[in-house]
Each structure stands twice: as structure tokens, then as C-alpha cells.
Amino acid sequence: MAIPSKFGELLGKISDQGEKFNKLDSPKCRYYAFLSKIEDVSPKDMPIEDQTWAALFEIVPYEWIESLPEEIWESKTPLPISPASLIETDETKASDFAEALNAKVGEIDEGDWYILEDIEPLEEGSPRPAETVSTGKVVKGIRSDGDYKRKGVRTNVKGGPAPDKKKQKVAKKHTAEGKFIANVIKDKMGDRIPSAIGVMDVGQASCNLVYDINGIPIFYFDLGLPTSTHWDSMPDFAGTSRLIDPGPCLRNNPFVVLSHWDEDHRTMARLSNNHLDLARLLWVVPEQRIGPTGHNFLRRLVDVHVWPANLTVRLKSNNNRIRIIKCSGRSINGSGLAVVVNTSPNEDDQTWALLPGDAFFQHIPGIVVLDKFWMTAPHHGSDNELVLNQIPQPGVNDEGRLAYSYGIKADGSHCYNHPKADAIQAYRNSGWGGTNDDKVSATAERGPRSGENPRERGNIMMCYDIHPPDCGTPNCPFHHFKIVLE
Ligand SMILES: [Zn+2]
Ligand SMILES: [Zn+2]
To answer: Which numbered ligand comes closest to the C-alpha of 252?
Structure first.
């Protein structure tokens, strides 16, 4: 089919503009910024004003957005790949953070767009912010291009909400969109029988791989790596090159379910040496508000199914062994996808494992009725949205098995203060792990906040003691497990 000339013309214009402004650094040190994440790192529950926040922005030069042809905002043409980078703010009092963004604490929400000013450049020789007599509050942060080997730059962070009209346009173009064909996903699930789940040690991030009884991968649930400020929580599979080498195991072309769009759940697919192969897998991702790096990520995926935000059903494989569940929350953590798999060797038995991602139980419909024996702790062991009476009970008169995925920095501190002591206790009280140390584990140390020295970190195998056979890739990271939670 010929491209209609108007559409072709638009593409031409976009690529012209792309050439001119396709640089990470803004000439005026000014950026459109998507507030991708606010993590409450307060040691205990606090009124919102007094909370301590660590935030992540995905930013793109102001000029890049402004120079896009006006027609693009009303067209169906997706935005081109943009020169996006990241800013992570230091832990800051919420009220100070709000002041630096010229907003009130209660108005600040993940998924909002801001304009940030006087941001330090990443490249040498780019214009730097003028030495202004800076009035008003600034918070400090670190800017990076998302490359884990390149050191970020320190920058002030200040600005204000993007003007309403522009914000709407930009946000509309930054929503994950794409085809969604349930039968194609079901065909890919086929009649595979999940038997075990590798909860991988990826530092302050999340990556689970579901295997069949022979240790052959079926699908990934998230492919994350830490963001810049938590890079030192990564294990050494990072190798010496700029990319993770070797990348995640791709034996048997597993499909991928992305729980939600946070960087720490998808970055491995960008920074691995096999990222082109990863982009060709079948991906199932949720429709959510996304920022410039999320948008770029989505555009590089070749075979992606975007689960519509308003589609609340769950998707089951024909043998009912794999279910993908649309979460019902409002936040980015709580509105993505969760997974349950029935790992029982007998068809009539139900022994389910729950992979919630960063979603809490009240946002995952249908799980209370399942007999669950295994799960990963939601949101790296955070307690932010943990509702005690929503914690599922393990299904038998036996403790449930629980795996935590979080990171510890080189200085020994827990990234974002995860996991929280009261969450650990709450899971124990609800029968997960109980007092039995061999039924609960963590990727970064032997158990949640077990605090041993030296730490015993590594991948965790849940459900069944399987041994993934050699896949032909030397040093493939996902074949060794420090513990089996059977
Ligand atoms: Zn492998
Ligand atoms: Zn996360």
C-alpha cells in the first residue's frame, strides 16, 4: 500500500527535525520531563509532607518536542525515537521536592509532565546552565543516559508543571499503544506446563523466568536491571563491556510479560548484548502512561501486544496452566499485569505460584480463590500499599514459599530501604515462610534482611528442583541457583 502523501510528508518532516535536534543535551538546558517514579523511602509511615522521596524522571530536550511538526499531535503517527535520558533525584523531603517543582505535594503524581530548567549536560562541550542567582528550592540529582557503565553527572533539579495544553498532547503521544491479539498470545503459551520459576539476582530490579519440567524456558516475567543510582547492587554477570554479556537466556524463544513500565523491570532488554534478539520475542505489555525512554523501548519491540487498559479480563492458556491478570489499581505499579502459574505435576491438582511484580494483592483480581504455595514479595518487599488483610493465605497446612528480589548497595545499605521490616513480619504472620528459614529467601542475601556477612546472593529456584540444561551460551547467567524453595 502506498503511503498517503500527507503521511509521507509528515514522516519526512519528522526525520528532518530528528536530524537537527537528535542530541541528548538541550541547547537551553531545558527539558520535558516525565515523572516516572516516586519511591517513598521514609523509614516509617509518615504524613505525605514529611515523607522522604526518591524520584526518577525520563527527560527529552525541550527543543526536540517543540520542533516536532504540529500535525503530529493529532495524527496517528507515533513519535520518533527520541534522545531520552534519566534523572534520579537524591532522597529529598517531599515538601522540598514539591517546592522545586513549583507544585504542592498532593498534586504531584507519577505519570505527570514537567518542564525542568538548568539541567547539566551529559556531553562535554554542550551548553551549561548559566550561573544564575538561583532563587527558590532546588533538589539534587544525577543525570544519566541509562548506560550502566557511564557515570552520570550531578545536576540541580527544578522547574514546574508543563503547560496544560501541551501536557495533554505530549501525554497522549506517550501512552503504550499497539495490537492485542489474545489468540496469538494463547498460541504462544501453547500447552506448556510451568514447573519452576527462577527468581533472578539482578540487583535492585526484577526478573523471573518460568521453566518447564525439563528446565526449558517458557516465558519471562520482567527483564529488569537497576537504574543508575543502584547500579552497584548488580551481580557481576555484567561483564566488562557496556552491555550485559551474555544477556538473559533465550533458549527456546521464551515470550515476555512485562508487569509494568518501570525502568527496573525492563532495562535488561535494552542493555544486553542480545538486545536485538530480545526485541524480536513476543512481548505482552500493559497500556500505561509511559515516558520518553519507555516510548523508545516500545518502538524497538518487533512483536508486541499491548494489553488495553480497559480490558479487565484475564488471559488463560488452553490448559489453564498460565494466567496473565490485568491489575486493577490506579498507580503505575498497581495497574499493570501479574501472572499466576499452576505448577502441579498432576492436572487435577492446583498448586499455584503468584508473580505480582510491583502490584499489591488488592489490585490483583481473582487470586484469593487459588491455592498458592509460592510467590514473590510484591514491590521488592515494600510496604507502601501493603494491606494486611489482603495478603493471600498459602493454600495448605504448610508454609508458603516466598522469594524477595531487591538490591544492596556497595556501602551495605538496602536500595530504597527495601524490604521493609513490617512487610517481612506481615508475610511471616500470614504463613509465608513462617519461622522456617529454608522456605523464604532473597536474591541479595540469604533471607530478607538476614544481614549475614559475607552475603549469600544469587538466583532462587521456586517450586521444583529443576536443572536448566546447557543452552550453548557460555556463562549464561540463568542456569545456577543458590537455593530451591520447594
Ligand atoms: Zn541459558
Ligand atoms: Zn520494581
So the answer is: 1
